[in-house]
Amino acid sequence: MENIEDIIGGKIGEGLVKMGEMTPDQVKTVLQKQVDGDERLFGEIAVDLGFIDLDVIIRYLEQ
Questions:
Q1: What CA–CA distance (Å, rounded) separates 30 from 9?
Q2: CB 53 within 8 A of CB 47
Q3: Is the separation of the CB atoms in 45 and 38 below 8 Å?
Q4: pLDDT tens digits for 9-62?
């Protein structure tokens, strides 16, 4: 069974791909970091890796 973090991360990742802000491979990279023990939120990791900036997360959340 998936945990809630995986479900939320998958949904935000899917949304960001649909928006054209991230690639599927970038989403997989972020999700793998979470699986490997990074406890940060999806957006925090994606920003830290330089895949997106904070403005993208804000726009996603406003939708």
A1: 8
A2: yes
A3: yes
A4: 568 898 999 899 999 999 999 999 999 999 999 999 999 999 999 999 988 888
